[in-house]
Amino acid sequence: MSNNGDIAGISAGAAGPGKPVPAASRPNRIGAALASFGSAGILGVAPFLIFAIIFLIFPTLGLIGGAFVDKAGKLTLQNFIDLTQPTIVDAYIISIKVSAASAVLGALVGLILALAVGRGGLPSWIRSTVMTFSGVASNFAGIPLAFAFLATLGRLGLVTILLRTVFDFDIYRAGFNILSFSGLTITYLYFQIPLMVLIIMPAIDGLRNEWREAAETLGAGSWHYWRHIGLPVLWPSILGTLALLFANSFGAIATAYGLTGSSLNIVPILLYAQIRGDVLHNPNLGAALALGMIVITGLANVLYLVLRARAERWMR
Amino acid sequence: MRRSRFLPWLGFALGAAYFLLPLIATFEFSLREKRDAYSFLAYANVLNDPNFRATFTYSVTVAIATIIVGIVLIVPAAYFVRLRLPALRPVVEFITLLPLIVPPIILVFGYIRTFNSSSFLPLTNSTTGTNILLTFGYVTLSMPYMYRAVDTGLRAIDVRTLTEAATILGARTPTILMRVIFPNILISVLSGAFLSFAIVIGEFVMASLLNRPAFGPYMQNIGANRAYEPAALAIIAFVVTWGAMGMIQLLARFAPKTSATLVE
Asked: Residue A286's closest chain B neighbor by CA?
């Protein structure tokens, strides 16, 4: 182990000013102290590791393994071939479209909002209000969020009725439906935009005033500053957060389920129906469906971590 | 150099409109249960519904159990990783990020397959077992947030000096953890706890697939069967989330301001 130095340091520090130790027994006592510190360390971390193995890693690996066997337990790739059936492919396409749309729009609007609040010279109470609200709204997902949007943009929602009575504009006749791709995207934005604001704000705070002053001294206007300095510095953070937002909505189910029941065919809802009632008539195909989701959210998260590491170069 | 503030104000106003309109609309909708006048009837119906009380109590109980189990697992782990086992840090950090990669629906699918009646640990066989499984699932869900909160708390204090001082005074490891370290990071731990609470209280998919009578599935059921009560529930859930996040804001004011937190 690489931490013997630490342990020795602590035990020396602990033994030093304490009771005087008889010279003869000193090596033994230090040895015992070493052993107890080392084992205490392991004992402290062990419950966490054991818990993670039993309740996180093992079930996930079991599921991944299940994707590679048939009902009789024999190794097969048939489950992945079966993933190409139209219902499943459609579900992946709609899921990817909703996640991409809500991630791109969420990142864009979130960035604009964060720039307006963080750099626009607005009073400081606005910034703290927006940050607090973002913390709340990014966690206000799931069933209640679906209810809120049904009450807003549903057929009897306040905004729908206002638009119809005041402006004589029926959004439902214009093709909008809260239970569709556009409705789901607009609902997801309610937690995607705040998440973007929360994650991008530190990066925006990292833009130093000196850079702007230096650019202005050299004759750059606002446009040149953002084009050549601001956005290039923020770019890895923006792309990284985009990946995170994508993963965030790809795995989400409660909002969609609360909004549309099982009528909208996205991957998590299909998987939910599969777990509930084996609608695909093959539990191992369900496992393959799940593995597909892990691969997509996993890739998106890896992208986020890599880009975040890049972005931190400018944060020092 | 003077710049126009019009665009920032416009951006803020549009954002505020998008975020406030659904809240206003939901609140207005929740008052419409009586045909002729605004009333709080929908709220009364919800609050008087025995199922609301039962499921809300159930979810609060599970949330508290989740927080306690999470603290017991994560505080010692984060402490020892920081102090004595830095080699394990990448492993532990990777594990705490995993729940963000494995969505809850996948995790619960894995649980149902792993802990079924014919498995080595047949937790789904009994109600108690399933309750434990749901709690552990929530511990896993909240792990990324709890670990980060605890680790931030540990970074803000001088763990090594505190530990050495306590050791000199004769304290053993459990005493150090409970009476020296824990009180010093209490505020961080509590922020993690309130965030976990906000995530767990209305959680739907795990509770639903494990067939537990939690608040999330209850809300879904009301949504499918009633007209105005769902809006009232949404407002109640928003207030609960706001309360949990507000507590975190409040606690942040009491957090020790050290060089470590300022760098964050």
From this structure: B109
Please state the domain extents for chain A. 1-68, 78-314
CB contact under 8 A, B248 and A135: yes
Q: What is the pLDDT confidence band of residue B261, given thresholds at 50, 70 and 90? A: very low
CATH architecture of A78-314: Orthogonal Bundle (1.10)
Residue among A168, A169, A148 nearest B241 (CA): A148
Q: Report domain extents, chain B.
A: 49-224
Task: Please check whether residue A147 touches B, CB under 8 A.
Answer: yes
CATH classification for the domain delimited by B49-224, as one of 1.10.150.20, 3.40.80.10, 1.10.3720.10, 1.20.1270.10: 1.10.3720.10
Between the CA of residue A144 and those of A98, A119, B18, B234, B237, what are the distances in Å?
19, 33, 17, 4, 7
The model's confidence at residue B234, banded by pLDDT at 50, 70 and 90, is very high
A35 close to B (CB below 8 A)? no
Is residue B173 predicted with pLDDT exceeding 70? yes
pLDDT in tens, A59-107: 999 999 999 998 888 888 888 988 889 989 999 999 999 999 999 999 9
Q: Is the pLDDT of residue B82 over 80?
A: yes
* B21 in contact with chain A, both atoms CB, cutoff 8 A: yes
